[in-house]
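Need the bound structure for MTE, inputs here:
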Amino acid sequence: SPWANEPKRHPVLRPASTRPFNGEPPLKLLVQNFITPNEFFYVRNHLPVPFIEVNKYELEIAIETTKSGTKEQIKTLTLQDIKGLPKYTVTAAIMCGGNRRSEMTKVKSVKGLSWNAGAVGNATWSGARLRDLLLEMGVKPNENLHVVLEGADLDPTSHPYGASIPLSKALDERGDVILAYEMNGKTLSRDHGYPLRCIVPGNVGARNVKWLTRIAVSEAESNSHWQQSDYKGFSPSTDWDTVDFTKSPAIQAMPVTSAICSPSEGEVLKIPADGYLTIHGYAWSGGGRRIVRVDLTADQGKTWHVAKIQQEDQPDGRHYGWSLWTGRIKMETTSTGEVEIWAKAVDSAYNVQPETFENIWNLRGVLANAYHRIKIKII
Ligand code: MTE
Ligand code: MO
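Answer from helper R.:
Posting the output first, comments after.
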């Protein structure tokens, strides 16, 4: 059975599916640490986890012949070779394109794993810069080329998981694309891509290819199902009868989002004597855009409260880690019963989350970034 070699997972990861394994941590736990502990970091696998013997491991890097003048070149590297290159560490959140899908589903059903808001984690990733490798091989900037990334995990027809990113992202010094062998200072675990994965900060989780075996500089995007016919956005009026996957670009940089992680949806609680309700959550935007504000309301937007943000001091455009936030809302001490809390984040381009899911609904349930809303009960 291809599932005989699956690694053990921490029991806090609530499975959204078991074969392949997909699991996310409870939201309250998720925001207890600015750096997500490795064992609490969500896992998103499309296929069985490959078993890789590190002494036999090789990474192939191919430069394909292109009209724009790159010449065929192939290089094979061992893990030792990659560890011999200058080591970089970046803090980057990875978020699945389907994070918060379970909220979008409430508008109308979608196809995909029913993720809550926990398909995200924030870690430090260490490894070689893809840029260094490509420059050493003589690759020149070119807006028309792509870097195709392939994993060692194979589908039943022996096709690997694959994705691609624009070459411009891979070569950008501020893009911080890493071939990572460490997560939070520890050897990558099997679920997170041991021995090597690509980290593409600011882009959708799907491009952060795990168990990396092949990199190709190419005229075409990855021909994989996940690049071509999945992880793309569509109009709310596009359905499975009318969808044409060639008509939408593959998701790369992610939009701004946030989630309330404490209290939990449906929680019953008492307001403390000082009258303040304390709320915790995370916010993040793709493309290296820093979170500049998180607004909270407990009265359907009549009054908004600005949350206090905890984040790394990184320049805008290169701010790849998430932000944690804490808000305090003064409640009427006499008010009891159901209260709805909403959160919305604003990024450095003043992009803000859309109000509702109705007008961003899409058949795959991706990019589910509307205001996060929870109901609690005050007694
Ligand atoms: N890489 C390979 N080889 N196989 C996969 O199934 N899943 C992708 C990406 N890289 C995947 C992969 C998706 S959709 C996401 S969201 C992230 O890995 C999840 O990374 P994580 O499991 O380390 O959290
Ligand atoms: Mo994903």
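Comments: Residues 44, 96-98, 205-206 surround molybdenum atom (ligand 2) (CB under 6 Å). Residues 298 and 341 are 5 Å apart (CA to CA).
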